[in-house]
Amino acid sequence: MIWPKMSVVPKAKLLEQKDRVIKRQDAFYKEQLARLEERSSEFYKVTTEQYQKAAEEVEAKFKRYEVHPVCADLQAKILQCYRQNSQQTLSCSALANQYMRCVNQAKQSMIEKGG
Questions:
Q1: Full-prediction pTM beyond 0.90?
Q2: Domain range list for the chain
Q3: Which of 52, 86, 90, 112 to pair with 58, CA 20 to 30 A apart?
Q4: Which pLDDT tens digit goes with each residue over 22-34?
């Protein structure tokens, strides 16, 4: 079989054309990649800003309440009394009654305030 003779020049030109096409495609894809990276960066920035804004709104809406224990002084006295009178806890009943009245008054106060 006889192969068609191709000169070296057309092969070289063909390779040059393919090389130019590849370089154009490479430039195109690099440009597309740069655009996608820029969009991604913008999206990240906007998303981060929106998240921060939403977090601040939620925090402002649901502020943490400071909790102060009610009747803490009486509670401490009762605990001390129980420790000192571990075998005779009824001797602490007067303190326990005071504590219960204090707690009930605090509950009533919270109900009246609407809290």
A1: no
A2: 8-64, 72-113
A3: 112
A4: 999 999 999 999 9
